[in-house]
Amino acid sequence: MSGSANALRDNDTRLIALGRDISAAQWAQPSLCTEWTNHEVLAHLVIGYGVAFSAVATSMLRHRGRFDAANTELARDLAVRRGPGQLLDELVALARRPRGIGRLFPKRLLLGDHVIHELDITYALGNESAVPVSTVVAVLNTQVRVPNPFVPAAARARGLNLLATDTNWARKADGPAVAGQAAHLASVLAGRPWALRHLSGDGVAVLSTRM
User: Fold this and answer.
1) d(Cα 100, Cα 65) in Å, to the nearest integer?
2) DSSP secondary structure string for all residues of 108-155
3) Does the domain formed by 133-209 have CATH 3.30.1050?
4) Is the pLDDT of residue 175 over 90?
5) How is the beta sheet containing 169-171 ordered, strand by strand?
6) Are 148 and 109 in contact (CB under 8 A)?
7) CA gap 206, 157 in Å, rounded
8) What residues does CATH 3.30.1050 cover in the chain?
9) What whole-number distance in Å separates Cα of residue 192 and Cα of residue 194?
10) Is residue 57 over pLDDT 70?
11) Has residue 63 got a pLDDT over 70?
């Protein structure tokens, strides 16, 4: 099993345990992923592990090829049909044996997706990140090095000198500096402007224009 696969497995185990302690009222609250409630974010994670290719294709046809709109529809529909407890149980099973697109999606990108969406829930609830810093560093490395057609984090990071203040991680570049906690950096690079307030440096203004 690869390092990314191990990290994803360990992170999912922790994420599922964290999810068991979230109340029904908290699941119903808006997440930092503006299209979805926390409940719908959880549904999205289940979809990423188990949705059939045909379901994605059908939804994209309805939305004239727009993946984001299809992705939003699939998550909302699943959240209507399954409660958070059911979705957590399904996530347990799918983490062990993914189906559909979950079998082919690169593990390092799945890890990033799961971490960022956990932060969407955690920060929306007013809590601090519970993701191990080493895991966030793995996500940051993927964000700045691996082009992602769904989340243009590498483009947002281009030319910026990034520094994590809570761990030994930096991405050197010739442009202006951006400093902050690793989880806040990862959240912003994933397109969440909420975390900009927690960053410092001349590059924050540049980064804010790339949201």
Assistant:
1) 19
2) HHHHHHHHHHHHHHHHHTTPPP-S-HHHHHHHHHHHHHS--SS--HHH
3) yes
4) yes
5) 169-171, 161-164, 177-180
6) yes
7) 10
8) 133-209
9) 5
10) no
11) no
